[in-house]
Amino acid sequence: MSQEQQPVYNNTTTTAIENGDKKDNKLIILETQEERRDRMWSLRIVYFTMFLVSLAFSVVLTGVWPLLDRLDPHAGKEFMGLIVAANPLGQMLFSPIFGYWSNKMKSIRLPLIASMAIFCIASGVYSVLDIFPTSTVKWWMFFARFFVGVSSANIAVCRSYLSAATTLKERTDSVSMMSLAQVLGFVFGPALQAAVTPLGSDGFIFQGLVINMYTAAGWINVLLGAINLVLFFPYFFKDRRVAAKEQMIIQGKQTEKETYKSVKIDYTTAWTLILSFFVIVFNFVLLETIGSSLTMDQFAWSKGEALYYVGILMSVGAFIACLAFCLISPLTKRFKEADLLIWGGFFFMVIGRLVFIPYRGDIPKLAVDREYKMENGTIAFYDEDDPIVLGCPVNSQPWCATTLQLQFPEFLFGFVISTIGYPIGVTLIQTIFSKVLGSRPQGTWMGLFTGAGCVSRIFGPLAVGSLYTRYGTTWTFTITCLMMFLPMIWLYLLRDRLAIEEVDIKTIEMRNLNGNSTKIQNGTNGLIKDKTVIINENETNDEQEKFISNGR
Predict the structure, then answer these.
(1) What are phi and psi of 315, to 5 degrees?
(2) HEC letters along 422-446
(3) What strands lie across the sheet with 15-18, from one edge to the other?
(4) Which superkingdom is the protein from (predicted)?
(5) CA 275 to CA 455: how far, in whole Å?
(6) Domains in the chain: ranges and CATH
(7) What is residue 107's DSSP assignment?
(8) What is the pTM of this model?
(9) Band of residue 368 on the pLDDT scale cut at 50, 70, 90
(10) Nearest to residue 222, comparing CAs of 137, 127, 139?
(11) For the segment 418-433, what is each residue's pLDDT rounded down to a tens digit?
(12) Mean pLDDT, to the nearest integer, of 125-130?
């Protein structure tokens, strides 16, 4: 074997020999050590981008209404709802566009730099809303949040790149890390907003700009966005994709395009996973939407108590979710991903909704209206924290008088089990979806996938809020439980098609090379071609040298 043919054997290099004439064995190296370092660094930058997108959404969320009310007291809460929906709306509309764009580019660098530039500009506009006249400021806020949503369409690009820049064996761990980065963004966002609260609503003037507890969050986004943009410059970010090359080696194809065109997409499974993603996100935003009002109605908590205790509950839930993300990798080594998705993700979510359906106890404490008439005919108001006005408002929600109370132990259990099921479900849906698509460019498909999640975030709060107000806990949680149960059954029926067989080129054992080449039987997905021998990196260097010597 000539010196220039000699591969470097280490834990980061994978070598394949495509059998032909033994004298002309062709060595194909998946990646060098330097390329692997570049790839790992590029994935870390993508994780940071996902963290920043989540942070940008959550850091200003708690301050949207107070800031809008301060800038335009006549805007109203209905317009505030439009502003909150503007972010996922922009993301939904532009996710397929960014995904398609990334498919047409050799590198994801340009789409991501463009998205971060939009992010910085939109966050800057949000931070200087004080300069706009009262008559139009609400629309400036709307468009600022809309274009922050447009910039967050880069999630589709990030998901597509993660699928292309990881091997099948790495995919689950990488998707878990990406999901964890998103959760941490949602956790640190409100904490960051709380950290700048001491600035107050007046704040201070810096270079003619108002820096207060509302605008400081926007400027933090600008700073982090600028850092993120710089990280995509060629010096820091190098686009390294291995998924297609991995399959090219395994299948014995000559080009990457030939590789992914040889495997057709299972459209039924792909669209099932998109629908499942929509359903699981829809159900998760349920508690975010009605969490405070639900606890106030069922447990007679005041507004302050609801915000305090639900805030604590959300923080604990985020911690539990982080633990669940960390457990996904070891669990997938013991159980099939499809089974873990069905029983650890969807089944837990179904149970979480099922226990929310009240079945014991009495009706909740009924509240009276704050407004009442005194003996002399004067209209007076109870204090909002007066015990008499706390509870389920039977006048505006007639179901309060006939529906049993949701008990606190069931509420707590349902919340905890849902925060375990959601991260497992959402991570494995993304993982399996990327594997179903194969090694082909996934930008457009990931755009559709991301868009489905955005639709949930837009219509979920509207639908759940209306359903709960009109029909109460029994109907709300029965319907959402069925929404989770039906996709779970459908996924169970498709479980064999969800089980994408992983053939890691690092772990296919060496066999003899005398005479005919070793034949590796085709897997259920037809990803492996006969007459391909892969060198197992777990073998020692001496054994590898001996193996190649026998093949001369």
Answers:
(1) -65, -45
(2) HHHHHHHHHHHHHHHHCCCCCHHHH
(3) 26-29, 15-18, 532-534
(4) Eukaryota
(5) 11
(6) 30-263 (1.20.1250.20), 265-500 (1.20.1250.20), 503-542 (no CATH)
(7) S
(8) 0.69
(9) confident
(10) 127
(11) 989 988 998 889 888 8
(12) 90
Phi, psi of 533 (to 5 degrees): -115, 125
Residue 400 near residue 364 (C-beta atoms within 8 A)? yes
Q: Are 353 and 390 in contact (CB under 8 A)?
A: no
Strands (E), 416-471: none
Return the amino acid letter for 245.
Answer: K
**Under the phi-then-psi rule, with left for phi > 0, alpha for psi from -120 to 50, and beta for the rest, what region is 500?**
beta
Q: How confident is the model at residue 297 (pLDDT cuts 50, 70, 90)?
A: confident
* Residue 10 CB neighbour total at 10 angstroms: 11
Kindly report, residue by residue over 371-419, the tens digit of the pLDDT.
Answer: 655 555 566 555 666 667 788 888 888 888 889 989 999 999 999 999 8
Q: DSSP letters along 217-236, please?
A: HHHHHHHHHHHHHHHTSTTT
Assign 316 to helix, strand or coil: helix
Neighbours of 55 (CB within 10 A): 25
The tokens describing 124, both together, are 């800057």
Q: What single string gives the DSSP state of each residue in 458-489?
A: HHHHHHHHHHHHHHHHHHHHHHHHHHHHHHHH
Of how many residues is the chain composed? 552
Q: Name the nearest CA neighbour of 237 among 123, 148, 158, 149.
A: 158
Q: What is the DSSP letter of 211?
A: E
**Residue 337 neighbours by CB under 8 Å, 6+ apart:** 172, 428, 431, 432, 498, 499, 500
Work out whether strand 366-367 and strand 392-393 pair parallel, antiparallel, or are unpaired.
parallel
Interatomic CA distance for residues 210 and 201, integer angstroms:
10
**Structure-block tokens of residue 166:** 């990881």
Contact 418, 347 (CB under 8 A): no
The helix (run of H) or strand (run of E) holding residue 373 is strand 371-373
Instruction: For residue 113, count other CB atoms closer than 10 A to its CB.
Output: 18
3-state DSSP of 485-545: HHHHHHHHHCHHHHCCCCCCCCCCCCCCCCCCCCCCCCCCCCCCCCCEEECCCCCCHHHHH
Give the DSSP H/E element, type plus range, for residue 287: helix 267-299
Cβ pair 279, 422 in contact under 8 A: no
pLDDT, tens digit, 9 for 90 and up, residues 192-243: 777 777 887 777 888 778 888 888 888 888 998 999 999 999 888 888 877 7
Strands 204-206 and 209-211: antiparallel
Place of tokens 């492996």: 528
Phi, psi of 152 (to 5 degrees): -75, 0
Nearest to 301 by CA among 387, 213, 195: 387
Q: How many CB atoms lie within 10 A of CB 130?
A: 15
Tell me the Ramachandran region of residue 32: left when phi exceeds 0, alpha when psi lies from -120 to 50, beta otherwise. Answer: beta
